[in-house]
Every structure is written in C-alpha cells, then in structure tokens.
Design a protein that fits this description.
By secondary structure, the protein is α+β, with helices and mostly antiparallel strands. The chain contains 4 helices and 6 strands. It has one domain: Alpha-Beta Complex (Aspartate Aminotransferase, domain 1), CATH 3.90.1150.
Length: 117
Amino acid sequence: MNIEELRDYCLAKKGVTESFPFDEEVLVFKVMNKMFLLTNINKDLSMSVKCDPELAVELREQFPQVQPGWHMNKKHWNMVAIDGAISDNQLKEWIDHSYNLIVASLTKKLQNELLSM
C-alpha cells in the first residue's frame, strides 16, 4: 500500500474528511470530526490507528511493524510501519477497525447523521 492507496481507502469511507491540523506533514483522517488515522507524508510510510486495547497488545507481540502510537495514547493507538511485510488486506482490516471504533463512540445523533450521508 502506498500513500495514494491509503488516502483513497480512507476517503471512500462514509463521513471521512482529511486535513493537516498539526503541520504540513501529518495527514489526519477523521470521521464526523474524530480522528481515526494519522500518517506522516514526508517520512517512511506508516499509520497510527485506534485499536481495542487488548488487540493492540496482541498485534504488537505478533508483528514487529506494530508499535505503540507515537505521541498518542499508547493503550488505544498503534503505529504501523507500512513496509510491505503486512498485506494490504490486513492493513485495511486495521483501518476498518479504527474507523468502526470511532463510529461506535459517536453520539446517536452523529451516528444517525452519518447513516443518512
């Protein structure tokens, strides 16, 4: 997966926007204004995604490319090096998991608004 594929996959999801809220390097994807993925466009490709805490630990133990999220709550965020060692399908599963965690945390009003998009 390259940056264009990552971007296209994220933007294809319902209610997703992209922005550079921190600087010109960190691209952030949000659903209903809540972050679910961050990536630095000027470094080796990686992504930070939200993750269930128990699963986060399992993934870190199973994959050397998965580390606690840099500058994020390390209990809930993983940083994943996208270096070709992990399949695109697996990366997409983790993106979906992050997106779904955020959607589940939205208020019922925002969830209904998202469904009507």
